[in-house]
């Protein structure tokens, strides 16, 4: 099928490059990335195999673009994240944690099949290509949120926000990746209220009796 005819079938709303990315993103959503071939993408897009190489340097570039599209698609369905100074810190941290868990549950299946394809992951993570680590924007926004709350005085001035962010990110990763590491057939489950509440309490209150949040014996506080 010629590029002109492919565009006509789509009503002219997308360029052929965008159509190929959208097709690959749909296949990743439906089938994952394992075994995804140029031939399959071309067939689903309604073009000849060689057409892909008129728009992408190689299969890795196309898959990296499709992964970015997949991440954006998942993020678009998660709603907005709260800003510093709104609601309470506890309520806002709950929102960030739920968002992070749902984000990773949505995008991890796309990356699970790429363990043996480092070239695709490298293309995805290339800053010049508009990529980044999976969920990186959420992690950066969480860290910025904690910094802003500290500046507003709603967190202790010596609060160890880097450590708090790593704790939250780690829990979100663990809750999702465990379903794949242990070979569970069911998808990752959304976090329960008690689970989220316990994590928020651990972050805000600490776990040692009588210790001020954000301080460790013998260590200087973070200087952000």
Verbal overview:
59% of the residues lie in helices and 0% in strands. It is mostly helical and 224 residues long. The chain folds into two domains: 3-56, Homeodomain-like (Arc Repressor Mutant, subunit A), CATH 1.10.10.60; 82-115 and 132-205, no CATH class. The longest helix has 24 residues, at 89-112. The protein is elongated. The relative contact order is 0.11. The model is unreliable at 1-5 and 213-224 (pLDDT under 50).
Key descriptive features of the protein:
single chain; 224 residues; Arc Repressor Mutant, subunit A; disordered N terminus
Mean pLDDT: 79
- Poorly predicted tracts of residues: 1-5, 213-224
Q: What is the string of SSEs from the N terminus onward?
A: HHHHHHHHH
Helicity level, as a percent range?
55-70%
Number of domains: 2
Gyration radius (Cα, Å) is: 21 Å
Major beta sheet summary: none
Tally the helices: 9
DSSP E strands, number:
0
Strand content: under 5%
Q: Assign an overall shape.
A: elongated
Query: Which structural category do the helix and sheet elements fall into?
Result: mainly alpha
**What is the CA–CA distance across the termini?**
56 Å
């Amino acid at each position: 099928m010629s590029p002109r005819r492919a565009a006509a079938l789509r009503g002219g709303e997308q360029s052929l490059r965008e159509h190929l990315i959208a097709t690959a993103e749909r296949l990743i959503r439906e089938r994952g990335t394992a075994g995804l071939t140029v031939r399959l993408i071309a067939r689903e897009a309604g073009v000849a195999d060689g057409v892909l190489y008129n728009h992408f340097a190689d299969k890795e570039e196309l898959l990296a673009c499709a992964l970015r599209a997949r991440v954006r698609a998942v993020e678009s369905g998660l709603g907005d994240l709260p800003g510093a100074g709104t609601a309470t810190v506890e309520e806002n941290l709950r929102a960030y944690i739920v968002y992070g868990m749902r984000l990773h549950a949505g995008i991890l299946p796309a990356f699970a099949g790429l363990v043996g394809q480092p070239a695709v992951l490298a293309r995805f993570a290339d800053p010049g290509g508009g990529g980044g680590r999976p969920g990186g924007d959420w992690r950066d926004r969480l860290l910025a949120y904690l910094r802003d709350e500290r500046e507003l005085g709603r967190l202790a001035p010596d609060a160890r926000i880097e450590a708090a962010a790593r704790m939250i990110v780690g829990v979100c990763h663990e809750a999702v990746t465990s379903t794949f590491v242990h070979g569970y057939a069911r998808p990752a489950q959304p976090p329960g209220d008690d689970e989220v509440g316990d994590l928020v309490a651990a972050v805000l209150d600490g776990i040692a009796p009588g210790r001020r949040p954000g301080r460790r014996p013998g260590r200087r506080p973070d200087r952000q």
